[in-house]
TrEMBL record:
<dbReference type="InterPro" id="IPR014719">
    <property type="entry name" value="Ribosomal_bL12_C/ClpS-like"/>
</dbReference>
<dbReference type="GO" id="GO:0006508">
    <property type="term" value="P:proteolysis"/>
</dbReference>
<keyword id="KW-0378">Hydrolase</keyword>
<keyword id="KW-0645">Protease</keyword>
<dbReference type="GO" id="GO:0030163">
    <property type="term" value="P:protein catabolic process"/>
</dbReference>
<dbReference type="InterPro" id="IPR003769">
    <property type="entry name" value="ClpS_core"/>
</dbReference>
<feature type="domain" description="Adaptor protein ClpS core">
    <location>
        <begin position="22"/>
        <end position="83"/>
    </location>
</feature>
<dbReference type="GO" id="GO:0008233">
    <property type="term" value="F:peptidase activity"/>
</dbReference>
<dbReference type="Pfam" id="PF02617">
    <property type="entry name" value="ClpS"/>
</dbReference>
<protein>
    <submittedName>
        <fullName>ATP-dependent Clp protease adaptor ClpS</fullName>
    </submittedName>
</protein>
Amino acid sequence: MSTKEKTLEELLLQEEVVTQNEIVLFNDDVNTFDHVIETLIYACEHTPEQAEQCAILVHYKGKCTVKTGAYNDLKPRCSLLLEAGLSAEII
């Protein structure tokens, strides 16, 4: 094996594995569609259309992944959802 191939092999092994976490929003019998939509727009930076689709999925399926990303980005967003009275968790 040449030196060039060995160096390339070592570089490939050093790639960082990025784990993606998810905020999952759960259905409840308390919050209105409008409240859920407004909160998703504010906390998760959804467009109105995205927020409405998520609200519908949560209503009919019981839960929906509303945001994916690094844990440090999701934690404050999930906290905003919880403070607004929604049921959510990071998985």
